[in-house]
Design brief:
Two copies of one chain form a homodimer. Chain A is α/β, with parallel strands linked by helices. Chain A is built from eleven helices and nine strands. The first copy, chain A, is globular, with a radius of gyration of 20 Å. At the A-B interface, helix 2, helix 3, helix 7 and helix 11 of A face helix 2, helix 3, helix 7 and helix 11 of B.
């Protein structure tokens, strides 16, 4: 029980990042099980569903306290609620999107974000031709307005979908506006202070690791 | 030198997956250094550029043989070439895209793939209204034609951008057509045999791990 009593800051520091990155998958899988009326699930079954081993499942979940009862498995509803709580998914998170080009528009219109509690709250673009236009009922504003607007609207999460060469200056403006977490679609590594979290989605890098396996005939 | 002499199959088996997933970032960073005229780079500098430690860099690269000379660092051109070779990036890879909706169109038109040696070779959709239309000069075909077309065109890599409920049946058709690597944008876990490599890009899952850090005040 010691872990549960620890302050949140210490919690974040002691859990390996790979575990944090797997937790949303746990949340999704547990929600699907709950929808199917499943009340109790074993680490074996969770392993099957997540493409992992029962030992890995037990180890991952042990970071957050004792959930399972030996021999009976995990209570699905309780575990789902607890993972949601740990991930901070009990609240709605407003997000800003910077870059409303082809990819940005697909992102702005993706219904999966709102369904998961992420509300697209603000759109920005560096292109003057796009400023003032509306996408999904939200008016695109200029990046110059961004720092003040982000602060005023209390937005801490941004999605970056600008070309590579604009990514760093736009990031600097996001940080000026108080953004603390960035989902980066631009194919560059962003320079940010250590307390800022950045995750990058770069399909080319993913494809390049796939070809390793094709090339090595796994 | 033992590692270099090992057959490719053994090579793929012994390198941790997390290392493989980092290699494309090495390739990108080394290419940028080479473009900037840098001839030699230390593990310290590579660590800075990759957001990693010098020890981690040396460990990662040690899986592929001895690259660095003690005290002098890595030869950028040689290391870039070797990483490219290991990843199988010396050839062009034709790809199929299934699902030409909003996201699929952004993917079909993204110039970054071709620049990295991934050629969009075929488009498919489950929607009869889209079949026959052209995107970037490629005619969209029906998924029923997919298995035969993929075999005929020797396509081993597919990008999946269909809605969640179509993902598994489309995947089965991809495998029937001989596809061995899938980049999955649908928010579901695909069931595939162990020899097939799947990587998923799901921005919601990424956002849900970002909120952990916001919630825990890293």
């Amino acid at each position: 029980m010691k872990k549960r009593a620890a302050p949140a800051k210490a919690l974040a520091a002691e859990i390996p990042d790979v575990v944090i990155q797997r937790l949303p998958l746990y949340a999704r899988t547990l929600n699907l099980l709950a929808k199917d009326g499943v009340e109790v699930v074993s680490s074996f079954r969770l392993g099957e569903l997540l493409g992992s081993t029962p030992a890995q499942i037990r180890k991952d979940l042990s970071y957050f306290g004792r959930f399972g009862k030996q021999g009976t498995g995990y209570n699905v509803a309780y575990l789902a609620g607890r993972v949601k709580q740990i991930l901070g998914l009990e609240q709605e998170w407003p997000m800003a999107l910077v870059g409303v080009g082809r990819l940005g528009q697909a992102i702005a219109r993706y219904p999966g974000f709102a369904a998961a509690g992420f509300r697209m709250a603000a759109l920005f673009d560096t292109d003057a031709d796009k400023v003032g236009k509306r996408v999904e009922g939200i008016t695109i504003r200029s990046v110059e307005e961004m720092p003040r607007a982000l602060k005023a609207e209390g937005i801490q999460i941004a999605i970056l979908a600008v070309p590579a060469d604009r990514a760093q200056p736009v990031t600097d403006l996001l940080l000026e506006g108080g953004v603390r977490a960035i989902l980066n679609y631009a194919p560059v590594s962003l320079k940010v202070p250590p307390e800022i979290v950045v995750r990058s989605i770069d399909p080319v890098l993913v494809l390049q690791s796939l070809t390793f396996y094709l090339n090595n005939h796994r």
